[in-house]
Fold:
Amino acid sequence: MRNALTVDVEDYFHVSAFDSCVRPADWESMPSRVQGNTLRVLELFEELSVRGTFFMLGWVAERHPWLVRRIADAGHEIGCHGYAHRRITAQSPDVFRQDVQRAKSYLEDVGGKPVVGFRAPSWTITRSTLWALDILQQLGFTYDSSIFPIHHDIYGMPGAERFPHVMQCGQGLLAEFPPSTVVFSAGRRSFNFPVAGGGYLRLLPAPLIGRAYAALNSRNHPAVLYFHPWEIDPAQPRIPGRVPLRSRFRHYLNLGRMERKLRYLLTHHSFAPMAQVLEDTLGAGTMQTVSAPQGSFSGENAHV
Structure:
């Protein structure tokens, strides 16, 4: 079974963990690492003959349009990660619409193909921002990968669907491909544990994540692997100032081991761009149509 290979293309200073330390006004003056790191990712994928989906930040794409073309020319899917990497929980519906439309239009102009997939910065489509799903459908997206069915201090929607499904949003349908989780039980309680990649892959042994993928695949569920180009760059500049301990731990943990872990997963499992995996799932008849999560309503009437 093919699993979804995804990359969130942003620079090390864009991450939400540093919101309290780095202002967007400072981004232009900070040493950029996203070009070289993304090229390393492309070289790794070419070496291992895999293709994936690159969710591009519009801010990065506007400054490095050649990078968008390089990704597209290598046969990878281009997805949208918004423009300014602002948490949706900090945006109004109108601001969100403008942010995403700006990024989507530019990526389509430069990449030369429709952009149909979206991933929210920091997974921040939550129960308080479900109006974003309707806006995405209205803007022409056919799928989203932003709803993380876990407990987390920044994001997450516990109890949400764990596997790819189709929802009625806006005036049509929108597919949702959640990041992968496995269920752990303790007595009468159970919870979803994340195994989709990123910091969770840096924290856990790669074979353990691989076993979780194999278990999902054995039940005809494709897995999602995600990471950021900065996660294979242990030499990246350290953020100056008073970085909160939790943020420092989350960002810098095991950066030097990430590429080796990615190699392990990419050589032991089958991967493809997310849009192709969704087509596989639809064709296999294993993707359900469900009601949108409770709280979803049209963007025109939404408020924060």
The domain at 2-301 is CATH 3.20.20.370 (TIM Barrel). Residues 296-304 have pLDDT under 50 and may be disordered.
